[in-house]
Design brief:
The chain has 364 residues and is an alpha/beta fold. The chain folds into 3 domains: 2-84 and 123-172 and 347-362, 3-Layer(aba) Sandwich (Rossmann fold), CATH 3.40.50.2000; 86-120, no CATH class; 182-345, 3-Layer(aba) Sandwich (Rossmann fold). It has 16 helices and 12 strands. Strands 9-8-7-10-11-12 form a 6-stranded parallel β-sheet, sandwiched between helices. Strands 3-4-5-6 form a 4-stranded parallel β-sheet, sandwiched between helices. It has a two-stranded parallel ribbon with strand order 1-2. It is globular, with a radius of gyration of 22 Å.
């Protein structure tokens, strides 16, 4: 946790406007939210001589932060945790599922109307979101993306006139404290794993199910395990029935670590991601990832052929999966490589990058 790491620095004092889910950090002072948020933040900046306001999501509170820092020397660092341009992708899938399966009748009707006017809806939605990201960048002193590979995309998508000179990059840290051992890797089950939010707009697990339809009769002693929950669960259950899929387990919302530890192969078929933390989670646990090449930062995570595979298309995804299923020695070697290469994302290293950005912005 970034704030926990920063609070241990002798030259840093941390404050938060948010209670952090049951976590007690004596070094972090909680500013209890009451009344006008902008005025309260402005007062705190002045009274506590705050140098930097960190906005974890670039759009959500940049307007508040910008107004609260007016007349002060306080800087704003915002962050975007997805790939630039994601807001324009697969909107129709989101609306179709909402129209069919949303428990709210009002939201079903709203989705139906939006679909009937989809070209106009998409144009208005994308235009609004692009403007939000552009404005958030303009109001920030630095905007932190998850990868330098996104810089050119961000400049283009959100029409930055300065060429993105305020962009910085920091990836996500590892999720677990344990790394798989050679013994753990030797004791894997014959499972192909997906850990994902069940959201067809982004995660596109329909591709996994179609892939399983094509290979299930070739690898009869293997099973497909899907960990996660979300709005598209009904869609996926219908596809499982439609394709007559066998040996598929949808286990719902679970602690995924135990599943990573017992599975030797992990699949990701998303249309877009910012980072793909499930990739590094799988690598930590000796579960070799195979992912579609659909977002730039993926190449920060996987060196294809060494600690995972990056597939150009669904046909290559199938070939790589069958290759790993059939070549146990290669699979184990790649699993061991993955447990080592992912160590470059140890949380302390990630947090230190943020600390260096903060020092840079205040001139230390």
């Amino acid at each position: 946790m970034l704030i926990k790491h920063l609070s241990k620095k002798e030259d840093v004092k941390c404050y938060t406007l948010f209670n952090i889910d049951g976590i007690v950090l004596p070094e972090v002072e909680i500013i209890q939210r009451e009344g006008d948020l902008t005025l309260q933040l402005h007062t705190a900046i002045q009274d506590k001589r705050i140098d930097i306001v960190m906005v974890p999501e670039a759009v959500a509170m940049c307007d508040v932060a910008a107004k609260a820092t007016e007349g002060t020397a306080c800087k704003i660092v915002s962050a975007l945790h997805n790939m630039p341009g994601y807001e324009k992708l697969n909107l129709s899938i989101m609306l179709k599922e909402s129209m069919l399966y949303n428990v709210s009748i009002a939201k079903r009707v709203r989705a139906s109307i939006s679909l009937s006017l989809f070209p106009l809806f998409k144009w208005l939605y994308v235009k609004k979101e692009k403007q939000h990201f552009h404005d958030a960048y303009e109001k920030s002193d630095y905007t932190v993306l998850l990868s330098e590979r996104f810089f050119d995309e961000f400049v283009k998508e959100y029409n930055l006139t300065d060429g993105g000179k305020k962009l910085r990059a920091v990836g996500n840290g590892l999720s677990f404290s344990h790394f798989a051992t050679p013994e753990d890797i030797d004791n894997k089950k014959k499972q192909i794993l997906v850990v994902s939010r069940l959201d067809e707009r982004q995660k596109r697990l329909s591709r996994v199910l179609k892939l399983w339809k094509d290979v299930q009769d070739e690898i009869l002693d293997w099973e497909l395990v899907i960990v996660g929950f979300g709005r598209s669960e009904t869609t996926y259950k219908k596809l499982i029935d439609y394709y007559h899929l066998q040996r598929v387990s949808m286990v719902g919302r679970q602690d995924p670590e135990q599943y990573y530890m017992q599975a030797p192969i992990f699949l990701m078929t998303s249309d877009f991601e910012g980072w793909g933390m499930t990739i590094t989670e799988a690598q930590q646990c000796g579960c070799v990832p195979i992912a579609l090449d659909t977002y730039s930062s993926l190449k920060d995570l996987i060196e294809s052929g060494k600690d995972g595979y990056i597939a150009e298309d669904e046909d290559e995804l199938k070939r790589q999966l069958l290759f790993l299923v059939r070549d146990e020695d290669r699979r184990k070697k790649m699993a061991l490589n993955a447990t080592e290469t992912c160590r470059k994302f140890m949380p302390e290293k990630i947090y230190e990058k943020y600390y260096n950005i903060f020092c840079e912005i205040v001139g230390r």
